[in-house]
Write a structure and sequence with these properties.
heterodimer, A: 7 helices, 2 strands, 44% helix, globular, B: alpha+beta, 5-stranded mixed β-sheet, 39% helix
């Protein structure tokens, strides 16, 4: 009698722990070879490439743009730019030179290096939550 | 989402607070003679006040520890000495000192003038720049340079070791012109011209900020100040006086066309862009002739670059709500990137 109640209680409590449903950021980020999410976040925060002028990016100061799509949940999205399957290599290529992939895209080649694009992609893959 | 703990926030905030004491926008990091005198005055006041505070606290504590010995002090003498003589002599010395500092930093410059051009002493050596405050950006006009008038926005370049006279005006409401590393604040008042003269002692990047609340985007009304060695400054000035760079690729040409077709020239100047029916001669917004060479966009809202330029054109109201520039968010995407590339090319 007592044991099932305790077990139920335990189950109920685990639902309170949001983190239990998330994969750790580092595990996801590992999929981007050579990408460091923390460096990526810093690049976005420094705003040198102006990503936040067009995109809303969770966890990045001043990134509230409404020109391009919001980047919430990049880790769980199906496609990048509506045309590339959302694999790390594709995301890095897109950030590095969007105009080569889609010359009609409004997203310009910002002059970001491939290495920086890799870090930025790593950070974007830590974003798993879609807007509620 | 994890949230940083209180201690981590404190650890982050502390260096930020201390960082405010140095760097490109600090009155405690003076780069010119006027700011130097003001900073010294601030330190004298701060250290003096700290000493007096510590002395008072020490006497209060001593009163608890040695009540018997201290009860032998004559109360009347203590009141008159500490409360009247000490206080008034300190205040007299400070008043004289701060008045002297005030008159010294304003020397050669502090002429409030009613109406344009009156009572300004001509001074061969001064660089004269008209600074106009708008909601919410700055215009800088270099008057009477050997290259003709030079106009730019949200960024001002000055030579080191030479007095710079800023003639301060406001286009709409009261703003206040403040470069903390060079001088104190001075208001920009509609219909009234103010004057302030300052000098930078060494080259480097500084930052100024509007210091009088002037509406929604008052905080995003800042500007960069670059102090150059004199020869470098002359080269910069000559480059700024030249007309805009010709668009020399199909994309840049398209960008220039879009700029004119969209009517950007109704608010912005791009010197030399066109002699056709569409021109860029508007006066409502910043002069964009060399916008690609500037450090920031939107008066400090963002760093410059093709990405921020595109975002600003399409979403200026999202980035800086209430500013005078409408969103151009119905442009075909190729046109948006072309016009951003074109503006970026205007170095």
């Amino acid at each position: 009698m007592r044991l099932p109640v305790l077990f139920l209680l335990f189950l109920t409590l685990t639902a309170c722990n949001e983190a239990a449903t998330e994969r750790p950021a580092s595990e996801i980020a590992r999929h981007v070879a050579g990408g460091d999410p923390e460096i990526g976040r810093r690049i976005l925060n420094d705003r040198d490439y102006g990503c936040g002028a067009c995109h809303a990016i969770p966890g990045v100061r001043h990134a509230r743009g409404s020109v391009g799509p919001p980047l919430h949940g990049m880790a769980v999205r199906g496609y990048v730019a509506g045309r590339l399957p959302n694999y790390p290599e594709n995301l890095v290529n897109w950030i590095y030179d969007p105009q080569r992939i889609d010359p009609q895209s409004a997203m310009p080649n910002t002059g970001i290096s491939r290495e920086e694009a890799t870090h930025v992609a790593a950070y974007l893959y830590t974003l798993q939550e879609l807007p509620r | 989402m994890s949230r940083p703990g209180g201690r981590r926030v404190l650890a982050l905030a502390l260096p930020l607070l201390l960082a405010g004491c140095s760097g490109i926008q600090s009155a405690l990091d003076p780069r010119g003679p006027q700011a130097d005198a003001i900073a010294t005055l601030a330190w004298v006041l701060f250290i003096g006040a700290a000493l007096i505070f510590v002395a008072v606290m020490a006497m209060a504590v001593a009163g608890f520890i040695w009540p018997d010995q201290l009860s032998r002090v004559n109360p009347r003498r203590f009141m008159v000495g500490g409360g009247v003589v000490f206080t008034s002599s300190v205040l007299v010395v400070l008043t004289v000192y701060s008045t002297w500092v005030g008159s010294r930093v304003s020397d050669a410059s502090d002429v409030n003038i009613i109406g344009a051009g009156t009572r300004i002493q001509p001074d061969e050596d001064r660089l004269v720049i008209e600074a106009v405050g708008y909601m919410w950006w700055w215009e800088f006009r270099y008057l009477g340079t050997p290259h003709g008038d030079v106009v730019l926005a949200n960024e001002v370049h000055i030579p080191v070791g030479r007095p710079v006279e800023f003639r301060l005006k406001a286009a709409d409401v009261i703003h206040s012109f403040w470069i903390p590393s060079l001088h104190g604040k001075r208001d920009m008042i509609p219909g009234h011209n103010n004057l302030i003269v300052m000098q930078a002692e060494k080259p480097g990047l500084l930052r100024g900020q509007c210091a009088e609340f002037c509406g929604d985007q008052h905080t995003l009304m800042s500007f960069f100040v670059m102090a150059h060695e004199p020869e470098e400054f002359e080269d910069w000035l000559a480059a700024q006086a030249r007309p805009a760079r010709e668009p020399d690729t199909p994309e840049l040409q398209r960008g220039a066309e879009v700029f004119l077709e969209q009517g950007c020239g109704a608010c912005h100047v791009v010197r030399g862009l066109s002699d056709g029916p569409l021109q860029a001669v508007g006066q409502l917004g910043p002069d964009l002739t060399h916008v690609g060479s500037r450090l920031s966009l939107g008066a400090g809202a963002m760093p410059n670059g093709v990405g921020p330029l595109g975002g600003w054109i399409a979403n200026a109201q999202g980035i800086k709500p209430g500013n005078r520039m409408p969103n151009f968010d119905r442009l075909p995407s190729e046109d948006l990137t072309a016009v951003a590339r074109y503006l970026e090319s205007l170095k």
